[in-house]
Amino acid sequence: MGLAIRVEIPISEDYRALTRLLTHHKVGYLTFALPEERKIRPVLRNVPYELATDLIHKDLNEQGFSVETVHKMHSRAGRPFPLALLIIPNVPNARDIFKAKDLRVCGLTGVKVEPLH
Predict the structure, then answer these.
(1) Where is the Pre-C2HC domain (predicted)?
(2) Which of 72, 82, 86, 108 has a 20 to 30 Å separation from 13 between CA atoms?
């Protein structure tokens, strides 16, 4: 069993400098994404599973939400859910999608937005 230490670096530039140094010296390390680099992952509820992900993606981008990817959600057994997971870069105003009260997706009403659990 090898030795390990835990280092928490509060400044992004210092974090990047340390990871470069460790990589240069071929020292193994584990890391987590910085908060500003993490993606926003809202879930759309009440979206028909049959609705194509590319249509959802196009519609939300036209509404001003910078969606990178849309994934349909299903059970482990493969049963479809009326849910769609969105992947949105953490840019200013990205969290505005959670404030959308009457979000319409491809003309559908009753779509709710919630954080991924």
Answers:
(1) 53-117
(2) 86
Is 14 found in the same domain as 60?
A: no
Residue 2, in any domain of the structure: no
pLDDT digits (tens, 9 = 90+) for 59-78: 999 999 999 999 999 999 99
Which residue do the tokens 């230490």 mark?
5
Whether this prediction's pTM lies above 0.85 is answered by no
Residue 31's domain spans which residues? Answer: 10-37
Do residues 52 and 77 touch, judged by C-beta distance below 8 A?
no
Distances (CA, A) of 41 to 9, 13, 25, 106, 115: 25, 25, 35, 20, 7
Split into its structural domains, the chain has a count of 2
CA 91/CA 39 separation, integer angstroms: 9
Helices (H), the chain: 12-24, 53-62
Are 42 and 66 in contact by the 8 Å Cβ rule? The answer is: no
- Determine contact, residues 113/98, Cβ cutoff 8 Å: yes
Asked whether residue 1 is domain-assigned, the answer is no
